[in-house]
């Protein structure tokens, strides 16, 4: 039996993508078991693998973990991506929770009805450039270090980079007014484990497109 974590989810980003990013950043190889049909999901539900009847689910260290934040926290703690003390961990949690808020908006864009897409896109741009990115820009400027918390690579750096790249997929020049975020993106992207994950052929997933939505709806609804 393989000792690698095993990820159960559909073959796409969704709420598993941040978990993939964390494992990749830690240099941990993982396997993936993709849900292709509603029956695949039902089987996991019926055999007791899903505590709350939903994915993502990760088999790791003899556990079948669900709830993406719990999984992420476990991985971050296990692989020393969670700060040096309680205060650093609190900062990491604050930064990550805000990233998740923006990430949710980015993830759900493909699911918006045609008549709501323009407004949803405008909301993403407004919140990214007026609420979230200015905060991280100021943190990096005031902190004066390579990383968001302390001077050590953490879960917060990983998940901010993931979301910056997703935002650039929506609008390539979205970081134009944020020089510290641009430098951060370049710097974190060059960490060897991250650089490897950003290469073609890695387990990083492409953006979700409208054509993918019907297949997902058949699995989850």
UniProtKB/TrEMBL annotation:
GO molecular function: glutathione transferase activity
Record Pfam families: GST_C_3, GST_N
Enzyme Commission no: 2.5.1.18
Class of this enzyme: transferase
Domain GST C-terminal: residue ranges: 85-208
A GO BP entry: glutathione metabolic process
Record bears the keyword Cytoplasm: no
Protein's name in the database: glutathione transferase
Lineage of the species this protein comes from: Eukaryota, Metazoa, Chordata, Craniata, Vertebrata
């Amino acid at each position: 039996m393989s000792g690698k974590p095993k990820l159960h989810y559909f073959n796409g980003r969704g709420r598993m993508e941040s978990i993939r990013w964390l494992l990749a950043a830690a240099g941990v190889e993982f396997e993936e078991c993709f849900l292709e049909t509603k029956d695949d999901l039902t089987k996991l539900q019926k055999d007791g693998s899903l505590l709350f009847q939903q994915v993502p689910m990760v088999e790791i260290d003899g556990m079948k973990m669900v709830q993406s934040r719990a999984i992420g926290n476990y991985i971050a703690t296990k692989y020393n991506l969670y700060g040096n003390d309680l205060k650093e961990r609190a900062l990491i949690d604050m930064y990550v929770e805000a990233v998740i808020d923006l990430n949710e908006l980015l993830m759900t864009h493909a699911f918006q009805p045609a008549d709501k897409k323009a407004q949803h896109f405008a909301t993403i741009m407004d919140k990214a450039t007026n609420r979230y990115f200015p905060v991280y820009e100021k943190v990096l400027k005031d902190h004066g270090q390579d990383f968001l918390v302390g001077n050590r690579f953490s879960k917060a750096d990983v998940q901010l980079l993931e979301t910056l790249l997703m935002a650039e997929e929506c609008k390539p020049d979205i970081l134009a007014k944020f020089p510290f975020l641009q430098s951060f993106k370049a710097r974190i992207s060059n960490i060897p484990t991250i650089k490897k994950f950003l290469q073609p052929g890695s387990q990083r997933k492409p953006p979700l497109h409208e054509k993918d939505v019907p297949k997902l709806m058949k699995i989850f609804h």
